[in-house]
Amino acid sequence: MVAVSGGRRAEAGSPRGKSDVPRDAEEQEALDLAADWADIGAGLKKAIGQQLYSQWIRPVQVGPFCKETGTLDLYLPTEFSANWVADRFADRLSLAWKIARSEVRHARISANPRLRALSDLRLDPGARKPANDGAAPRMAGRPPEADIANDTLSMGSIGLDPTLNFASFVTGTANILACNAAQRMAAPETPQFAPLYLKAATGQGKTHLLHAIGHAYLAAHPRARIFYCSAERFMVEFVQALRQNQTIEFKARLRGFDLLLVDDIQFIIGKAAAQEELLYTIDALLAEGKRLVFAADRAPQALDGVEQRLLSRLSMGLVADIMPADIDLRRQILEHRLTRHSSATAVPGDVVEFLARTINRNVRELVGGLNKLIAYAQLTGQVVSLQLAEEQLTDILSANRKRITIDEIQRTVCQFYRVDRNEMSSKRRARAVVRPRQVAMYLAKVLTPRSYPEIGRKFGGRDHSTVIHAVRLIEELRTRDADMDGDVRSLLRQLES
Question: Is residue 275 one of the residues assigned to a domain?
Answer without folding.
Answer: yes
